[in-house]
Amino acid sequence: MINIISISRRTALIGAVGAISMHKSAFAAGAPLKIATIGAGNIGGTLGQVWVKGGHKVMLSSRKPEELADLVQKIGPGASAGTVEQAVAFADVILLAVPFGAVPAIAEEHAKALATKVLILDATNPVQRRDGAAADAAIDYGAGLYTAKLLPGAHIVRAFNAIGAARFGQGGRAADGTRIGIPMAGDDKRAIGIATDLINETGFEPVLVGSLEFGKNLRPGLPLAGEHSAAEIKQIAATLK
Length: 241
Description:
Elements: H1 7-17, H2 19-24, E1 34-38, H3 42-53, E2 57-61, H4 69-75, E3 79-82, H5 84-90, E4 93-96, H6 103-114, E5 119-122, H7 128-131, H8 133-141, H9 145-150, E6 156-158, E7 181-186, H10 189-201, E8 205-210, H11 230-237
Parallel strand pairs: 1-2, 1-4, 2-3, 4-5, 5-6, 7-8
Antiparallel strand pairs: 6-7
Helix pairs in contact: 5-6
């Protein structure tokens, strides 16, 4: 039996074909970006290091940026540390990589500025035992859509949610040599194009699985979690709503 993709998801998938060409006018493919990570733990620190190696400028941020000195030194030239406010002011692209319980406060303080960025890469995951009421609300509303509700006008692509963070610095190849896919969900074509480039630079294969509404499926413990090839991700996504 052939699985039918909904019209909204099909529209997003078709739109991705032209996404890279659309964002080139503002950000040429391969051109260095200013990237800030809100959160400098396993996800932010690891991806920040990969992107610095790719030639981008990366500012890692936390409430205590002085504690990031060793990590910045380890990453080397191209990396810096700052407060969240400094990172938001610095960057073209924001990687949101904090426990989900912190997102409402970040949104309350920085939503207006975040809406001006070309891409908010949402790597957060609502975890009920850790994040409490914020996680409950995000899961009920839909992870991804809830972030968009907190950050009105922001160009959000949900990605890096379904694989353990330790894997991100090890390259994107499985034991058999095939590229491991990174499912992503979003609505903004230019943001999707830039996210596609940044995921490719990590060695993984970006796979657009649908609109931001579909981002509710990009969480640990759900069918798309774990390491899958791009073809496997597409097959699994086609069975989901």
